[in-house]
Design goal:
One of its GO terms (cellular component) is membrane. By secondary structure, the chain is mainly alpha-helical. It contains eleven helices and no strands. 33% of the residues are buried.
Length: 281
């Protein structure tokens, strides 16, 4: 463990991207706690000002400080996406395991269910659900809905992974010894899928970020809550680019891109050092 940590924290790429990620997480989740007034409220500051020393990211046509609006939007987008990632991984893991290790009838039913869900496009369903219930939804509830839709292809991958593990001698020994499915999953299977769990969590998280932005731009989201997607939506509604107020869109999008890139690079570096090299040894 000490050798792994030493190798991680002597990797320049990892340190740089980890620093950027931590900084952005502090900017998104801690910095907004210092606000005495909700930055999403309209007409708090002069309208349509370009970036300056007083307003580093400029202001919107609605009189909002973009530098203060962006972390609030980013925190909500990340909250939705992290919850979606956790829920999606959990559902995919459980269904993939059941489809591989349960009795033949349950195995078949679960496999058919997974295949059917894989064929149904997620974005239109999300748009319908979120638009119909948007007045009643909170950010965590939206994350749960994203997770309940985003697990499909991951479950297929887990099923294939578990089918391969099922042929291992120690798995067969556990089954013939009468051990329960939960014991087999936790003790025998989980050590081999931890690496994929981490990567899959990031995969679903990034998927949720993309879908949140897309659905919000179309106006099918809870529009009175600030996210990166709703920020872009209102900027487009008020013709920000046409009026030359480019900073209303550019800075939130740029911060989101850097956040996603840092999450990806930190994850890939951890995967390469902790899992790939350990496997080679």
């Amino acid at each position: 463990m000490n050798l792994i940590l030493k190798e991680l924290f002597t990797n320049i790429k990892f340190i740089v991207w980890l620093f950027i990620l931590v900084f952005l997480l502090i900017y998104a989740f801690i910095y907004p706690q210092s606000f005495s007034v909700n930055p999403a409220r309209w007409f708090q500051v002069p309208r349509a000002l370009p970036p300056s020393s007083d307003f580093p990211f400029g202001t919107t046509l609605l009189g909002q400080d973009v530098f203060k609006l962006t972390p609030l939007a980013l925190s909500n987008t990340l909250l939705i996406s992290f919850i979606a990632g956790a829920i999606g991984v959990l559902i995919a893991l459980v269904l993939g395991f059941i489809a591989s290790f349960a009795s033949r009838i349950i195995n078949t039913i679960t496999s058919i269910f997974i295949d059917i869900m894989c064929m149904i496009p997620g974005a239109p369903i999300l748009m319908i659900i979120l638009y119909a219930w948007r007045d009643k939804l909170t950010m965590p509830m939206i994350g749960l809905i994203f997770g309940a839709i985003g697990w499909t292809f991951s479950a297929r991958i887990y099923k294939g992974l578990f089918e391969g593990l099922k042929t291992r001698l120690y798995i067969a020994t556990s089954q013939y010894s009468g051990l329960g499915l939960l014991h087999i999953m936790v003790k025998d299977v989980m050590p081999y899928v931890i690496r994929f769990l981490m990567v899959n969590f990031i995969d679903i998280t990034i998927w949720a970020i993309g879908n949140e932005v897309t659905i919000s731009v179309f106006g099918a989201m809870k529009m009175d809550e600030v996210t990166i997607g709703t920020t872009i939506h209102w900027a487009l509604q008020y013709q920000a680019l046409h009026l030359g107020i480019w900073w209303w869109i550019v800075f939130p999008v740029l911060v989101l891109i850097i956040t996603v890139t840092s999450i990806y690079n930190v994850t890939i570096t951890i995967d390469n050092i902790v899992f790939v090299r350990r496997t080679k040894i």
